[in-house]
Amino acid sequence: MTVVTMVKYGQLPAVRLTAPDGAQATVALFGGHLLSWQTADGKEHLFCSAKSALDGSKAIRGGVPVIFPQFNARGDGQRHGFARTSLWRLDDSGADDGRAWAEFVLTQSDLATPVAQAWPHAFELRLRFTVGGSALDLLCTVRNTGAHAFPFGVALHTYFDVGRLEAAAIEGLQHCRYTDHHLATLEQQEPALRFTEKTDRLYQAPPALTLRTADGALRLEQQGYSEWVVWNPGAADAAALADMADDEYLHFVCIEPARVDQQLLAPDAQWVGRHRISR
Ligand SMILES: O=P(O)(O)OC[C@H]1O[C@H](O)[C@H](O)[C@@H](O)[C@@H]1O
After folding, report:
1. Which residue's alpha carbon is nearest to atom 14 within ligand 1?
2. Options 3.90.1720.10, 3.40.50.2300, 2.60.120.620, 2.70.98.10; which CATH number does 4-278 get?
3. Identified catalytic residue from 80, 157, 251, 275
4. Which ranges of 46-204 does DSSP label H, i.e. alpha helix?
5. What average pLDDT does the segment 68-82 reach?
6. Which of 128, 156, 210, 241 could form a disulfide linkage to 103, CB 3.0–4.6 angstroms apart?
């Protein structure tokens, strides 16, 4: 069976991965960016803005932006790093145990010259997507292929389609400490996090969460990362985003396995982050 086919998403070349049971994932080479994940029942789980650029001129607003080598402004480089606006390569693909997988790679030699000059470190960033049944696995590996240590932060900035924001709730965060967008450190008291206003929180990661939506629940698990970032811009911030329609914030929540602080990776060392999303 053919596991991958090349498709176009907007103007972006993308790889469509199809498991024997019909579950699918579509990944743009621009950003190594997961655009769509459908379980075998045909249900789409990711949100993508109708106003997103899909021509490589700007990061995609939706799906799973890959944040590397810095989270937000926690570093000297561009906000959220260059991985989401660089051109990745499909390295390999296959099928195991009834699931389909594809692995994408980005190295220093793939970067545009000014980007490589601004971050002059020999690295290899790999992302393997495995799809089938009711689960999606994202395996992220960062390797230092050079002679000097480099600092990095990393996150998978997943936009989940929640149907209606008022129906969305995240369980698993009660009694967890978090930092909010005012930089206050607080402890969550509520059993479930709901979205009634702008939410931008950084939680010390419990390993697993449940996202409840209008029509089901997803279990989110992570290993190797150290935080969960939870973001919904709310009405005012959404209106200020040129690549998001004013009311689209009512349909998604971002939940991101992350390692936000810059940490050093020694020569020849490798960091691995695992993320599983399942129904
Ligand atoms: O607009 P972007 O650069 O894609 O960032 C979108 C959002 O990313 C993260 O979730 C941050 O915690 C937010 O503060 C930020 O607004």
Report:
1. 200
2. 2.70.98.10
3. 157
4. 113-118
5. 96
6. 128
Rounded CA-CA distance 176/213 in Å is 21
Instruction: Please pick, among 103, 227, 248, 256, the residue that the annotation labels catalytic.
Output: 256
pLDDT digits (tens, 9 = 90+) for 152-174: 999 999 999 999 999 999 999 99
Kindly give the number of the ligand 1 atom that is closest to the alpha carbon of 237.
Answer: 16
The single-letter DSSP state of residue 165 is G
Give 186's contacts (C-beta < 8 A, 6+ positions apart): 177, 178, 179, 180
**13, 42 Cβ separation under 8 angstroms:** no
User: In the 8-state DSSP scheme, what is residue 20?
Assistant: T
Q: Is 148 known to be catalytic?
A: no
Residues lining ligand 1, judged by CB closer than 6 Å? Answer: 72, 79-80, 200, 229, 231, 254
Taking 90 as the threshold, does the pLDDT of residue 2 lie above it?
Answer: no
- Provide mean pLDDT across the span 43-68: 98
- 129-149 per-position pLDDT tens digit: 999 999 999 999 999 999 999
Q: Specify burial of residue 147 (Cβ count, 10 A radius: 0-12, 13-18, 19+).
A: exposed
Helix (H/G/I), strand (E/B), else coil: 28: strand
d(CA 274, CA 49): 26
Residue 1, pLDDT score: 65
Whether residue 36 contacts residue 26, with contact meaning beta carbons closer than 8 Å, is answered with yes
Atom of ligand 1 nearest to the CA of 181: 14
Decide if 249 contacts 231 (C-beta within 8 A).
Answer: no
Q: What confidence tens digit (pLDDT) does each residue in 79-94 have?
A: 999 999 999 999 999 9
